[in-house]
Write a structure and sequence with these properties.
Largest sheet: 4 strands, antiparallel
Number of strands: 4
Radius of gyration: 16 Å
Number of helices: 4
Distance between the termini: 20 Å
Helix content: 25-40%
């Protein structure tokens, strides 16, 4: 059974701050990519396509972690905590809104015993 965790961390910058925020997000990549359990950690930007017309935040981290424990350890690193405090929570931060979600590739109750 796969224990991988997939995280989509979306960010909307305050007006005029998208490029600056994207650079900050990219600066988090090198250390995060070296963490135990990190399979993928990539800051991406929304691009227009006639084949993908859904709505999304303009900046998104696409993350894959080997386990929920690895993801949760990442979330507690000083660098990551500081980012959220300085950019998402602080009044003068660059983030207007954010949304972080985690997913599994397993169906609900996978391998659960029959009761």
């Amino acid at each position: 059974m796969s224990q991988k965790v997939y995280c989509i961390a979306m960010f909307r910058a305050k007006p005029g701050q998208e490029n600056a925020l994207f650079k900050i997000l990219q600066s988090l990549e090198p250390n995060s990519q070296r963490e135990d359990g990190c399979i993928q950690y990539l800051a991406t930007r929304h691009v227009q396509s006639d084949f993908a017309t859904g709505e999304s935040f303009p900046l998104v981290f696409n993350e894959i972690w080997a386990s929920k424990a690895a993801f949760e350890a990442h979330c507690q690193r000083k660098e990551i905590v500081a980012f959220f405090e300085q950019q998402c929570v602080a009044e003068d931060g660059l983030v207007e809104a954010h949304n972080v979600c985690v997913y599994s590739d397993q169906p609900a109750h996978y391998d659960a015993p029959n009761v």
